[in-house]
Amino acid sequence: MNTDTSIPQYCDRRNTKSLKFDGMLPLFGRDDLEPFWVADMDFCTPDFVVDAIQARLSHKVFAYPVVDNSFFDTVSLWFSKRFEVDIKNEWIIPMTGVAASMFTAILAFSDENDSVVVQPPVYGPFFSVVKSAKRELVENPLIIGSRGYEIDFDGLEEIFCSKRPKILLFCSPHNPVGRVWGEDELKRVALLCVKYGVLIVSDEIHFDLVFAPKKHNTLLGIDEIKNNLILLSAPTKTFNIPGLNISYALIPNRVHKKRFEILAKNLHQSLPNIFGLEALRACYEGGDAWLESTLEYLFENRKLVDVFVADNCFVNGFSPEGTYLYWIDFAQTGFTPSEISEKLRGAGLALSGGDFFFGGRETSFFRFNFATKKERVEWALKRVKETFDF
Ligand SMILES: Cc1ncc(COP(=O)(O)O)c(C=O)c1O
Q1: Architecture of the domain whose range is 51-286
Q2: Regarding beta strands 199-203 and 167-171, do their DSSP bridges make them parallel or antiparallel, or are they unpaired?
């Protein structure tokens, strides 16, 4: 085992009550598969986070916490060090989770039957939060162009014109296709939203997981959109702590902020977990080195999948510019989506089915999570080859 604590340490998660390893049965009908599905990592929580939690544990009282200024200061610090963007503490609202914040934003800024736009393929809850809130779900699918997956700007404008939606639910970087949107693309989206008075709810939860030379551009850096923007993010993907229920919303528009904050309080979503608060501070104060080495590790794993995709014509893949998720098309195998799914299980593999990202529609795409030790990635790719390359 590597003893350098600034380097990600692989951790055997089976029988640790983890969703990825121990919670497969309902989704895959089996619990003996090797999982490469849900978006968390197989690396231990870094020591500086464990130490911060341990210090809090020593209080021996885990009653309601208070969110003090250190929370706001460290979120601001992270935005200035990572993205060179100055944010004001008064824009920040602590929240339990990003999906809960999406739902809160939809309830706060639209009414029943109003339209909300999503751009599939996209993280499943983008669909479910709109439907649960009884808003009209309008899809503007991503298209494939010279940069890989791209935003269909003509389609978006056409929808803005004809449907007059209240909200665009935006994913940046985009899960599952791994695009890190360029400044030009973000600006175009922002200007369209301003032109048609559409509020952008920008889910930037994957914003730290970006491979050089790409850089994440936060929508907060685009002045024109500041008044129309609800930005949602968290340290949970970056530092592998989604079980700690900690996130935040950033809302520069004072009126919007107040409205969101009142609803979040009424829904009891704005008081994060006591250990999550400690973890966020530790991550944002001291997590830079660990993040850099984790990105290097993930980059090497991504290369393994890149080579696999390039060498094997039965798969087609989109190398992610960000996230640790690889969006792979198995259409060229000639099998139907359910046959592909069956065969992957038969090979002992649990990948995320692409239907989750298309609102339940069948597809030959599957998402492969490569945030694990290199040997597991190699093993999984070997199993895929043995299964489909005959
Ligand atoms: C794009 C995106 N948004 C939100 C979430 C979930 O965030 P939370 O656990 O804070 O609700 C995920 C988790 O995979 C995600 O990929």
Answers
A1: 3-Layer(aba) Sandwich (3.40)
A2: parallel
